[in-house]
Specification:
The complex is a heterodimer. Chain A is mostly helical. Helix content of chain A is 82%, strand content 0%. Chain B has a single domain, classed as Rossmann fold (3-Layer(aba) Sandwich), CATH 3.40.50.300. Classes of the chains: A mainly alpha, B alpha/beta. The interface between A and B is medium-sized, with 25 and 27 residues.
Chain lengths: 277, 229
Amino acid sequence: MKNYLKLVNFEFNRCAKLYFVLIGLTAVSQLIAVFVESRRYLSQVNVALYQDKIPKAQFLSETGEMSMFWIVNNAWFSLPIIICITAMLFYSFFIWYIEWMGKNSFIYRLLMLPTARMNIFWSKLTTIALMIFGLIAAQLALLLIEGQLLEWLVTNEFRVDLSIQQLSESSYYLAILIPKSFIAFIMHYGAGFGMLLIVFTVILLERSFRFKGMLLGLVFGTVAFLLFFLPTIASEVVGFKGLYPEELLIAELVLGLMVIGLSSWTSHYLLNKKVTV
Amino acid sequence: MIEVKGLTKKFGRKKVLKGISFTANKGEITCIIGINGVGKTTILNAIMNLTPVNSGEVLIDGEKISKTSYEKITFIPDTMTMLPGFRIEQAMQFMQDFYQTWNQKRADELLGFFKLEKTDKISALSKGNTAKVNLLLGLALDVDYLLMDEPFSGIDIFSREQITAVFTSHLIENRGVIITTHEINDIEHLIDKVVLIDEGIVLREFNAEQVREEEGKSVVDVMREVFQP
């Protein structure tokens, strides 16, 4: 356990710099979104009220009030989210492959640590999880800051304040990142980490058997994926409606646990018996 | 004692190891000699469970390798095993964090002996100094067995001399060492036991001192006999 925590700490420190740069860029870009959208709106207000002499009430009923809704749908807001998601996807692979890359083969050291090799596996998974939750937390904090900034930039009479819940419904990306209910949170992120586990196993298959491993990985990945989403596929694609929603949920949970078990057992076997430096 | 028993290993269809068996004792320097590409590195990797073998087994003091074995045996490969972005002091800290057998006093001693700066970044080191850091990270572990893969290849003469000096010092004394090489000149006088390997099999395993006394032959003489009959 102690070694696992040390490894998590080590893995996180390794990419901490880049990670905080990513958060910094997101913050800057999203604050730009607030400025861009409020200026656009305020100039609309100026043109309408002072040049075209449209009454305020009419303007508000035609154009609407300024709110975070406009900001979260601006490209300056969503682009960094896309970049962060891409970066995390990329890093999920890179976190393994970097160990074999170049002259400095750190994999030697990792495999020779006097600790269970699965600790390496779990520490990498945990690091990705921590980074993702860190990004979400940063996004939530940023939404509050951005809301505050908007309050300063646009006066009360032209502004509607939205709750985070309302916001998450008004942006495609936020809707994915910030689930509405606890169950949805467990489902979304459970599925996400289940997939990450499968990806890790596929990477280890490739690392163990190289080209043959890639094909094996493809088979393993497909089978695990199908198993994981069997209830969804059955009800959505095949049209099998024999299960109540609660039963569907339980089936999903059981299958999910099965896939997690299968994937971790396979990874354990590969790391201990098959992987090569 | 390290016992290597009947190791076989295929890379695709090519059989690299065809039943390698030998032993290496504690307190002795055992040298695996063979030309390049003969599977010397693979043998060391297999001993450390860093690569799977098709058959055969390795016993370290009668036990199969497990996670706790890494406090007892260590391997110094010919590539750097630390993050290139680390400074030497960070690398030492890393070792201290994970190994109970890490001996910082000895690490400091080696640092001085090799004239290395703690604050130097690993990626900025010369090839010779990189090899020395690698050596330091292995030697500063209080382990019983030490495996070294080609510690002299591609290294300048002064670094070679420093590394050879390590072999005759207390840093090695009482430990079991397995070293691979394809050039023996520098270390002929140091080694106790020789294992000659070619085409995946052990051609001859002998005690250097014994052959010298009984047959009046040097290691190189025996190598000539075996490799160029």
